[in-house]
Amino acid sequence: MDFFNAIALITNFILLPGLTYGSQLALGALGVTLIYAVLRFSNFAHGEIMSFGAMVCILFTWLGQSYGISFGFLPTALLFVPVAMIFTILYCIFIEKFVFSYYRKKKSNPIIFLIASIGVMFFTAGLIRFIIGPSDQSFNDGVRFIFTVREFKALTGLNEGFGLKTSQAITILTTIILCSLLFFFLNSTRTGKSMRAFSDNEDLALLSGIDPNKVVLLTWIIAGGLATFAGVLYGLDKIYKPFIFLQMLLPIFSAAIVGGVGNPLGAFIGGYIIALSELFVTFAYKKVLGYLLPENLEPTTMMQFLSTDYKFAVSFIILVIVLIIKPTGIFSGKTI
Amino acid sequence: MTNIQRRAFIFFSFFIAIMFIGFFQSWNVALGIFNLCIISAIMALGVNIQLGYAGIFNAGVMGFAALGGLAAVIISYPPVPETIELGGSGVFLSLVILLVGAATVTFIYKSPLSSSIKKLTIPLTILMLLILFNLVGSPAIERIEAFEPAASGFLGGFGLPIILSWFVGGILAGIVAFLIGKLTLGLRSDYLAIATLGIAEVIIYFLKNEDWLTRGVKNVNGLPRPVPYEVDLQGNAWFIELCERYNFPLVETSSIVVKISYCLLFSGILITIFILSEIALKSPWGRMMRAIRDNEISARAMGKNVKARHLEIFIIGSAIVGLAGAMLTTLEGQFTPTTYQPLRFTFTVWVMVIIGGTGNNYGSLIGGFLVWFLWVEAEPLGLYLVELLTSPLSDTNPLRIQLITNAAHMRYIMMGLLLLLVLRFAPKGIFPEGR
Predict the structure, then answer these.
(1) What CATH number does domain B3-79+156-425 carry, 1.10.3470, 1.10.1660, 3.20.20, 3.90.380?
(2) Which of A164, B30, B58, B201 sits at a 20 to 30 Å CA gap from A80?
(3) Which site among B50, B191, B339 would you substitute to test the A interface, given the most A Cβ atoms closer than 10 Å to its Cβ?
(4) Which has more confidence, B322 or A317?
(5) CA B218, CA A333: separation in Å to the nearest integer?
(6) ipTM attached to this prediction
(7) CA distance B219 to B213
(8) pTM for the full predicted model
(9) Residue contact A316–B195, C-beta within 8 A
(10) Which CATH number among 1.10.10, 1.10.3210, 1.20.1540, 1.10.3470 corresponds to the domain A2-325?
(11) Burial class (CB in 10 A: 0-12, 13-18, 19+), A153
(12) Cβ pair B57:A114 closer than 8 A
């Protein structure tokens, strides 16, 4: 029984939140990695693009709510994700046309692209704060829990339990569906293959008649769409804070690099690696060990490796270790 | 127009803009902006040494500036005897453990043992160290933080003159830069930017959470000043007499005098650093750096130790940023870890360097001046624009109210546009790097 109690505790505080956060990071990291694979630069504006998508979704949710639209027990925001995606993708195409295409034609150094993406980041951050303001927005109006900790305890008779938040279930499910679609697209369709070919060897791809503009456009469409989902799901699960997305840039980049930058599967796995290790390292194991160890050995301290405040340090440490030991990442992406 | 005339003209225009604010807003505001312009210019000079001389992308400027602020607290704040008695020895002991441990790990790493033994012993030593460190440090830290948390709850500092902290801030930032540089400088440009971005976040988290050292988010207020206080001036008989003789308003004059004294102090530092940077740039050392930047492989073929030079320049640039950070905390008179935002510290300084012209010290100077000026003036300008554009709407229109309250954020939009436009149409900046 004690063993199941420990499992329930870990599920509630590490596994479920880790999988949720990992999904959000994976969606973000996939965008970063795709842009890196095709356009060959690290897009510092990606966090703000996620924020932009979430903002548009919130605005439409408010509009919809004022007309009395709701999505039953699911959050209303989900209805408006497609609209937000369209706006975000249009914004991505707008910045591609007005900023990045010029440097692409000039074949500028990746560093110039990086600086330009910082310009875009500034601009987008300002635009978001200008439109929706810098304060927090909570927009999850659905039912909060599919089942709560108390219901779980009553059902199983355990001392500890785990609850499943609606937002967690939505996040994990959506991510699985989106990633399956993406991998199917990349591996099995003609357009997806042309994208991979372009990423692999640009000159060869051009010779075989692949239109680079089409590939780049497609990359922005996919990255913008995924970023919208990542931003909305993060906002639904926690809360929408305009400034948090700059801080999320670090775990997202870490996820992309740990998995091997430019490799979509790597980015997907990397997101979960970063999220789960953040939670594993900052979780206080006192209660869990209390169940697992014999009574006389129960720990008296919190049994925490690192204070929760340092969770961002975890993704940084993983990043540095990977960069030093295996700079190409676990799935051997490209080296910058 | 020759080069010198061009430079003189642009600097002259900037001073006209400051004068304009002085005459039309107030001299207090103008001097306040100018003081921060000087600090920004020093930071920009530091980043220019990294980005311009050597092409190193340091996205951790914020962290080094914050370390300078930490130095200002540690050097100048009077010691808190009660907390030192409660936990000073424990903290000191854990510091010793940390240093001894670091030395042991380095020793094992450099020793001629086989790599498999090293792989086993190094993590074990680190683990033991952390446990020992926690056992000694944690109780002491708890005792310190529990002592009058609302008013104190930290160790305080050394109570030395705050000007000293500027140099200590530089040294502290330099030491941290050395450690970080050792870890990350082998990485290529993109990775380095991401890694340093992360380090800056970690430093800020450390400052926000280690209450025993910095009081964390409770901030440290009332740092001593290197210049007289306004109130003291207003009570000073000689000063009152001076004001009466020339018919100056007493309160305003006192605050202007304080700002001018800061201005003189800061200008001294700025001019020194500027001259030193110019000398370094024109020296064989500076030429070597640019050679490494422009073609690393051929520089290496010429026998230059690229990694060591990069580390050198990373330390120097970061130390200058740390110095500027300490000056900033001195000027503000308080240390607030929450104000360190990457957009405000790291990326704005980048914009300064790039707009001014990477690799040119005059460029960083004018970039620091202009960008800070715009950063401050964007708020009234943005408000004016929004009010003008929304003037057809009624005063109670929610859209209008929303836009007016958010008008201050126009500065981010402006920074972004400025950076993108300069990068596109004048990629070499206002003052291109001379050959």
Answers:
(1) 1.10.3470
(2) A164
(3) B191
(4) B322
(5) 44
(6) 0.89
(7) 11
(8) 0.90
(9) yes
(10) 1.10.3470
(11) middle
(12) yes
